[in-house]
Structures
1.
Amino acid sequence: MPIRFFNTLSRELEDFAPLAPPRVKIYTCGPTVYNHAHIGNFRAYIFEDLLQRHLEARGYEVERVMNLTDVDDKTIRGSRAAGMPLEQFTQQFKQAFFDDLKTLRIKPASAFPAATEPRFLEKMIAMIRELERKGIAYQADDKSVYFRLSKFPDYGKLAHLNLDELRPTGRIRNDEYEKESIGDFALWKAWDAADGDVAWDSPWGRGRPGWHIECSAMATALLGPQLDIHCGGVDNIFPHHEAEIAQSECCTGQKFVQTWMHCAHLMVEGQKMSKSLGNFYTLRDLLAKGWSGREVRYALISVNYRLPLNFTFDGLAAARAALGRIDEWAARLADLAAKSSAPSAHPLAAQTDFESALDDDLNIAGALGHLFNLIRESNRLIDKNELSPADARALLARWQRMNAVLAFDPEAAEIPAEVLALAEARVAARTAKDWKKSDELRAQLEALGWQVKDTKEGQKITRR
Ligand SMILES: [Zn+2]
């Protein structure tokens, strides 16, 4: 079966056929660096990571660009409220974002262009000039430059809007606006007092780029006029991605993106995440509550990307339990694999149902279902002594291929220093045959959520 993805533009599942295989060019809208990214943002970035890792597992060479929006309405508002220069204000959140990507095991993009880099500002200005030359961009009385919507009849196709019914009127200066208020959108915003000292020179006077042109410029500067896949969250479809298509296609005269993929919303405990409801979480909030990066990764990756994800603490606990099962299974296989036996190939190790599920529009729920079937089936065989060490080696190799996509493997660093210290003290107590002390330390570890097992190879600690 070929790889199929749901294309937001056609609203159909389409066979995936990149323009120049094995290369795949992907652009993903990155964070606006005005605060710490929240788990709804990370759901989208983890879906993009799954997409990249699966394509790589299928032999494609992925070039992925993720931009950092470091100048827009929100970053300027935030830096002024904090009384900090824009660059200094955004720098802290850029660094935090990179740290969070690492914690969640999201592969770094090939490039992370930032909107304020001079080469990209030049590209934005060049694109706006080209649009002006074609009569599509115009400078209005307020000195800002706008995109003339009437020149691009395809506007609204991605979001499936009927422009005739909406009758666009007026102009919109804000980066984000509602579908009801369609109008000529800003490409270059003339400086005003709310911008403080944030401004660059341009042929239209001092000002700053609109948010949408930032992505068109960075995408085409780094990946060329045509992309295979463009991703984002569903809230990016309108107006942001709609505007990206209009700007890019009017400049280049070519179809900008083959496949548009959008990740659905994330809810928390059944409600829209919001600061006022007290259910707004950044990754850091969850780490502070004792959850690990890979547990959050599991919770965010495990629901198919086009379905809304209801993020709950029960779900996180289930993620922890599922990872524990995987760890235990991989450890059993490793123990068995270390023994010697004649080569053989168990049919379980030759299955490709995990990969096939992901070929089907990244059906991760199906893929994980296959993984847990494999775990159940091979555990049963180990229990009955029917799995040879060679079979175990083949299964471990299969797990490693799956894990290259999932990135679920345990990290020693996930065990807190406090827990490691107690565990070491327990080893010392047992060496001294102080069983009472050893039991006390075990109880302390359990109180912290860690389980101790004494095995032939020594003490092993795992999450309870
Ligand atoms: Zn974008």
2.
Amino acid sequence: MSVPEIAPFHAIELSALAHRLAAEGQDIIHMEFGQPSTGAPTKAIERAQHVLATDPMGYWESQALRERIARHYHDTYGVSIRPQQVILTCGASPALVLALLSSLTPGMRVALARPGYVAYRNTLKSLHMVPVEIPCGEKECFQLTARAIEALVPAPDALIIASPANPTGTILPEQEFRAIVRVCRERNIRIISDEIYHGLSYGEPAHSALEYEPEALIVNSFSKYFSMAPWRLGWLIIPEDMIDKARARMGNLFLTPSSLSQHAGLVAFDCSEELEGHLVTYRKNRDLLLQALPQMGLNNIPPPDGAFYVYADIGHLTDNSLIFCEELLRDTGVATAPGIDFDPVNGHKFMRFSFAVSTDRIEEAIARMIPWFSAKTDK
Ligand SMILES: Cc1ncc(COP(=O)(O)O)c(C=O)c1O
């Protein structure tokens, strides 16, 4: 068995260029990564400062945080899970690795939407599992459908669901979500649901897969809603019969997440006023961007129901989204992500804007991009 080749994350290359340009004095607006520009909630930082000053800390998994997360599932989704089912991780990324390693074996086939988060495909390949990409178009808002999963022959061993999704922000409609779960149950397909963008919805809140399927594995994190990406803290919810397997893997592969982050994360659950304030900003940014896109000649974009992304078709302007995003960055200082990161087949005709920045930066980005796109369209 050879070491699998996996593609780099092109947005990282663009971000590196953005930082080089900034060092040369160019004013850069960072819309390339899905990371909130706000820091951790104030009270979480205060707690961390106190712990740093008073506690030498050690390897540790916070029982209080596991209990708090279990309570969150009860309060938010009306589902009952035991704190033992919660495994604290260093973000959603290791939670996904743990989910895959605890429920599947090398060679197994895992279905996922295309476009989708770049790491799904690459993590599966790294673990010698086989990604089965389901092309999802504008008609289905780039989301999975029960029909598409029904049509897969042979049935995959597992399915990764992401709602709200990266790079589109679209949310699975409830009926479709239920239908997908039904098909998965009938066809014995294990569900892994990445719920990292929960809490960031602009209409109806997103549903957890646990509401329909208690055997689903749930991946989540403090990186998005809680605005704590650099604190590297997340969690996996695992069915009872897999707890021991997952715990053994967590202990051997990663030991524990940062003790300091766990202290801060527990407090972050009580900072909803500050965190809901971020959502108000994102909503404003989203509206501004959606208004501006037609003026940039970008149309037919399914409005993001959640997260903080717009995925735009630029097929009339380019067939190389990487070069296109690089040109946009050099000319205007606006850093974005090329679609090839999310879709190796059609992504050369798409780009992603992240609007998790302050509203004045979005306004500035729009003011720079409208004339730039107009000039491109007129060529
Ligand atoms: C859909 C999705 N899942 C997982 C991750 C990884 O998040 P974390 O920072 O918690 O590892 C990201 C990061 O952007 C993401 O977009």
